Automatic annotation (TrEMBL):
It is found in: Membrane. It comes from Sparus aurata. GO terms for biological process: detection of calcium ion. This is Potassium large conductance calcium-activated channel, subfamily M, beta member 2a. InterPro entries: K_chnl_Ca-activ_BK_bsu, KCNMB2_ball/chain_dom_sf, KCNMB2_ball_chain_dom.
Length: 236
């Protein structure tokens, strides 16, 4: 009877050890799988964070470039109010000299007609000279439009005359003027208006938002992963 009881106890302890051994193996496999998953996720998370930081840095550089080009020109422009201009007079006054590039260290002189356009702003009786945009106003304070200088002066003459005929035919054109009246001239168009500024800022803003969102999502994933591990430890 003693031998039978001893045999049963050895059999029972052996079965328990075997069950514990199987459980430990499964446990080790589970821990190893988790380690592999964490190891695989770690480089992916690092790459995602680097991508987000790169997008944020690129957007900041784009903001800087836009700030010293488009935004600066837009802020310095005094022609901020939009109105309606009635064309009073559109005539060619004289020929203006310009220079064009004819090769390496070679410049030659050509001529284009100077078109002067006078308008009445918002039918107020205020007569002002019309310029094409800020660049034209800075280049020539007398002429409405300064074409790109080229060898064929006749082609520039035809271009200016077509512009003059178009202005005479339209009579009323939209224009921009200085509300403080410090600038007597008015502009037909602005180099950078509201829509251009909006679209130029849209893409870097989207890039900045996308980079920040990527970083936030990675950090949220890491937080949820740690939270899941802590909950699993508590349950065990």
């Amino acid at each position: 009877m003693f031998f039978v009881a001893g045999a049963k106890s050895r059999t029972g302890s052996g079965g328990g050890n075997e069950r514990r051994s199987i459980y430990q193996k499964f446990r080790e496999v589970d821990i190893l799988d988790k380690k592999k998953t964490v190891t695989a996720l770690k480089p992916g998370e690092d790459r995602a964070i680097l991508l987000g930081l790169g997008m944020i840095l690129s957007s900041v550089m784009m903001y800087f470039v836009l700030g010293i080009t488009i935004l600066r020109s837009y802020a310095d422009s005094v022609w901020t109010e939009e109105g309606v201009c009635v064309v009073l007079n559109s005539t060619v006054t004289a020929d203006m000299n310009c220079s064009y590039n004819c090769g390496s260290d070679c410049w030659r002189v050509s001529k284009y007609p100077c078109l002067q356009v006078y308008v009445s702003v918002n039918n107020t009786g205020r007569v002002s000279r019309l310029s094409h945009n800020e660049e034209t106003q800075d280049t020539s304070s007398e002429c409405f439009y300064v074409p790109r200088c080229q060898k064929d002066s006749l082609a520039m003459h035809v271009m200016i005359m077509n512009i003059s005929e178009r202005l005479k035919a339209n009579q009323q054109v939209p224009c921009y003027y200085d509300p403080s009246e410090q600038q007597e001239a008015v502009l037909l168009t602005r180099l950078y208006d509201h829509s251009i500024v909006f679209h130029s800022l849209l893409w870097p803003s989207c890039m900045l938002l996308g980079g920040a969102l990527i970083i936030v999502m990675v950090k949220l994933t890491q937080y949820l992963s740690r939270l899941s591990e802590e909950i699993g430890k508590i349950k065990r």
